Amino acid sequence: MLNYKGNLWVRKNYVLGNRTQYPLFLGTVAGTLLLYLYCDFVLLQKYCEIPNLSKVIVTFQILSIYSMFRVNMTEPGVQMQTISDDKYFDGKLCEKCQAIKIDRCYHCKFCDHCVNDFEAHCFLMATCIGRRNIKYLLGLVTFTGIALYLLLLILIYKLFISDCKKELTFIILNIVSLVLTLVHLNPFIYTTWRNASQNWTKKEMNRTKFNGSPSYIYKNYKQFFTRFYDSQLYESFIQY
C-alpha cells in the first residue's frame, strides 16, 4: 500500500487568499466596521434602552468580524498533488493543476487550484470557500444576521411603542436600510444552513430530496463543523 502520509503527496504552495483581490477584502472589512460603528454609536446609544442588549449586539458584531478574517485566513482545503514523475500513481488528476481528483473536489479558475468540498470563489473574502473555511462563512452570515435583526427589532419598537415623532423619518430610513440588507443576506443564511444539514455542496443542492430526519441532520451538522483536518482526507485517497 502506498504511503499517503509520506513524500508521495505534496501540496502546492498556498498563499492565504487571492492577493490580487485583497483590496476588495479590505474594503469589505472597512465597510462592515463602519456599518457597525454607525449602529453602535448612533442607533444603539440613541434608541436602545436595555444596556445588556447592546452588549449582546456588539458581541455578535465582534464574532462576525472574527469570522470574516477566519474565512480569509483559513486554507480552504486545497487538494493534494502528486509528484510529476510518479510512475506508481494511476488515479485521476486535474488537467489544469495536476491535483488528485476525488469526489466533491473542483478546480477554482481564479486561484488555479482544486479545493475539496468546493462551494464557490468568494471575491469579497478574496478566497475559495471549501471544506475548511465553510463553517466560518456560516458563522459570518449568521452572526451578522442576528446582530442586524436585533437592531431592527429595537428600531421597530421605538417606531410603534415609544413617542419619537420628531425622529420618525430618521428611524424609518434606518428600518428600510436594515430590511433591504437582510433581504439580501437571508438567502445566504438559509442556503448555507440547509446545505450543511444535508451534507450538500453548492453544486449538489437540489439534486436529491431533502431529508428532515433529526438524526440525519444532527449527523451532518456534526460532520460539517469537524471535517477540516487533513487526516480526514487521506481515507479518500485509499480508493486509488
TrEMBL record:
Where exactly are the transmembrane stretches of this chain? 20-39, 136-157, 169-193
- Chief localization class? membrane
Q: Name one GO biological process term.
A: protein targeting to membrane
Which is one GO molecular function term here? Answer: protein-cysteine S-palmitoyltransferase activity
Q: Which GO terms describe its cellular component?
A: endoplasmic reticulum; Golgi apparatus
Q: What is its EC number?
A: 2.3.1.225
Residue ranges of domain Palmitoyltransferase DHHC in the record: 90-205
State the compartments where it is located: Endomembrane system
Q: Which reaction does it catalyse?
A: L-cysteinyl-[protein] + hexadecanoyl-CoA = S-hexadecanoyl-L-cysteinyl-[protein] + CoA
Q: Name one Pfam family in it.
A: DHHC
Q: Per UniProt, what is the membrane topology?
A: Multi-pass membrane protein
- Kindly indicate whether the keyword Coiled coil belongs to this entry: no
Q: Which domain of life is it from?
A: Eukaryota
Q: Does the keyword Acyltransferase apply?
A: yes
Q: What class of enzyme is it?
A: transferase
Which keywords, in A-to-Z order, does the entry hold?
Acyltransferase, Lipoprotein, Membrane, Palmitate, Transferase, Transmembrane, Transmembrane helix
- Family (UniProt): Belongs to the DHHC palmitoyltransferase family.
Looking up PANTHER family in the UniProt record yields: PALMITOYLTRANSFERASE APP, ZINC FINGER DHHC DOMAIN CONTAINING PROTEIN
- Domain-related comment: The DHHC domain is required for palmitoyltransferase activity.
State the protein's name. Answer: Palmitoyltransferase
